[in-house]
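Margin note from the TA: students keep mixing up input and output lines. Inputs are the sequences; the output is the structure of the whole complex. Example:
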Amino acid sequence: MAQMLKVDALNVWFGEAHERVDAVKSASFTVAKGESFGLVGESGSGKSTILRAITGLAGSWSGRIEVAGEAVHGRHRSRAFHKTVQMVFQDPYASLHPRHSVDRVLSETLHLQGMDQIDARITRLLDSVGLGKGFRFRYPHQLSGGQRQRVAIARALAAEPQLLLLDEPTSALDVSVQAEILNLLSDLRKERGLTFVMVSHDLAVVAHMCDRLAVMRGGEVVEEMPQASLRAGAATSDYARNLLAASESYRREPV
Amino acid sequence: MSAPLLSVRNLRVSFPTRSGTFEAVRGVSFDLGRERLGVVGESGSGKSMTGRAILGLVRPPGKVSADRLDLNGETILNLPERRMRALRGARISMVMQDPKFSLNPVMTVGQQIMEAYRLHSGQGGKAAREKALEMLSAVQIRDPERVFDAYPHEVSGGMGQRIMIAMMLAPDPEILIADEPTSALDVSVRNEVLRIMDKLVTERGMGLIFVSHDLNLVAQFCDRVLIMYAGQVVEEIAAKDLHQARHPYTQGLLESLPRLDHPVERLAVLQRQDSWRNDVKGA
Amino acid sequence: MTEMTTRAWLLTDAPQTRRQARLGAIYQGWLTFRANRLAMFGLAILILLVLMAIFAPWLSPQSPFAQNLAERLKPPSAAHWLGTDALGRDILSRLIHGSRITLFIVGTVALIAPVIGLFVGTVAGFAGGWVDQVLMRITDIFLAFPKLILALAFVAALGPGIGNAVLALAITSWPPYARLARAETLTIRHADYIAAARLQGAGPLRLLIGHVWPLCVSSLIVRVALDMAGIILSAAGLGFLGLGAQPPMPEWGAMISDGRTYILDFWWVAAVPGMAIFIVSLAFNLLGDGLRDVLDPKGAKE
């Protein structure tokens, strides 16, 4: 099967010398084309940092990152990269420019991606994320959290990418809205044959969305497992097992 | 059940806006005994505003009204700020979502707990110090002496939340209102914090109002649950029966959650109905 | 849309066209501004000032330069509503014509200083590293001198005159704007929406102009409006010291300076332009306060 993303012995760190903080330590995993891969772990485990390192947004890194067979270097990313890889951020309240209307966001994006027929494309993009024409000229403050996240997804789709990086795309949303957004993402993946890499702390969400996942702790990948093992609670490492048990439920101590 | 600790009837919170009055809470009624009462709902359902209204923390131009808002038989509705301040902390406490914003960054943890305690008990410094250390160990902080002298930025999020709880519990309040106390925490830490609150409720006979958006957590942690929608309580149900909830809104919320033990192709999407706005429990 | 009122059309949450969206946003801002009565008062005064400047030749009863030594230092009367000065010139006429100079100073400084500040501050904040270091040290050098002293030095070097005074004021008043713009940029720089635009391949220039500037501009506008009073006073100070407007120009600061010799016996000569400066400064302050309600991004969320 063709490989979409390969991360090999990835180290990411912030600061230098004695201030150096290692956020990711020799993480390796591969994601096949069309697959949906999850990264789970607690806060500070480095899961989001991996996504940011792939896109050139974070820190200094060493190791190897390959996207669709092409290795990337440093923090600069080529035009082709931006057409292949896009990202949806965690907080839809922070990922849309407060002074830019939906129209401005999408037309600028399409323009940057060198697309033609921008007007028609905006209509189609809004349609595909379940927002009608009526949303086109709204500003972020006129949208709900779920609608904002739909706009952010439309922006990511504008480039017609193959790999979508999802950084906790629903953790800032209400559960009913979360269901709508997750359904939308599943549909889009099916329609467009997208590859997903999804970061989340919610194991149930990852189990719903991903075929395979990696459990991270303190910057390291502790364990990789298929969805079925996650659902069965069959982790091999102690840490992953405890994490699964803890998120399963809160149990009252016998009095 | 004996006389309730807190009795609320027809609580309303409204804010004037450009296009008329917006009612954030529209007639909420409940009694709180020595129990864990969960209040769940989505953002904008008025669940947090209910907690704030009880504590007298609704800022002008917001207005609070109620037919009854009694703490142990005494009314606490719209008390003057000075009397409310004496009440807050001493008899009703609140734990907020993010400890980072609730702790004073330039005071040590110990000083803050001592201050909270001395303000309400009038005890001397020595007694306050002992109480503070005792509270820190009560929330299962292993090295209370060290944490006592630490500044808030030197402790982790879970530790910070435990410190907040210690601070809120130092004056022995009758009621604790916890507004999403664990949503900023990782699951392993979350369970520890819950366990501590749980123990305090059972051992001290405190009443706990647990405001949360997490239905499963509330079902497991609380005794009784109020489900809020658009400023009203649409359903009240024993926590253990939550999964047999009758109101379509509650059912819809539960179904929209992905579950580990129950794979589905598509998640059920909640279809909101306008009529829910006027559904009041029991009606 | 036919049965909709203009107000509903403007306030809708679902605008149909780009134009409606933009007008709606402006109208929302206007409603917020209008709710601040003091700001409206400030705005009214400033509109009057602008009208006064435009129609100065028609409004002023006499020429601001016409001397009449027989009528010198007359108190306010029916013939001269605000009295006459040491050369017998009508103070009201001078005041009315002086509003043009005041507006010229205010307008020019407001156009130059914040633009320099915005440019320096956002570039420094956005680029970081050594660019930031160099630009901010230059800013610090300017900030290290008291503003008026620095302006004096510039005017002394360039030669006295209203144009040079304005230039000196503009050159000395940009550093605080640069600091403000840099601080704003630092908070914006790591925002997710900047990261998202970067992921679309947006270059630094586009990010700076299209994304960072719109957010910095609003706080700068507020700051400029609040600083206007200080600029008017500085200009008046330069005029008072004889380094700004040259006689016989009816600049308000220079008028105070002329009147100070007679302040005990003929108080109106200095007091009237003083009051004018006071009122206009106050108006700008009130306006700035109202603009803050409208433009503060934190307030705009509601």
